[in-house]
Amino acid sequence: MKPHYTIMLLIMSNIFMTLAWYGHLKFSKIPAFSSLSLIWIIVISWGIAFFEYCFQVPANRYGFVENGGAFNIWQLKVLQEVITLSVFSIFTLLVFKNETFRLNHLIGFIFLILAVYFIFKE
Prior knowledge:
Elements: H1 3-22, H2 38-63, H3 73-95, H4 103-120
Helix pairs in contact: 1-2, 1-3, 3-4
């Protein structure tokens, strides 16, 4: 399978993961969800996370070099982490308007890009 398919599946997975993990923090702003108990919030998050796994598992299975993919396990993990932080950053800036992207965040991302470089270096 081509590497870009794995990356697209990882992006989709992380969109659902971010919604499951952090989207519920804005549920109080939605009238239908504002009075739900924590257990219902957990159930809804699990429901969203199901779709995360529907993308994550194929991404890792198809992307893994021993299954004919392009990435070793280390590369899959660091790709997933960088994609997670990228999706999370976009989500945070769009949904949580009171959060700001600061210089220390940028520096941290630069270090992550360096991590990707070193993990992929032969």
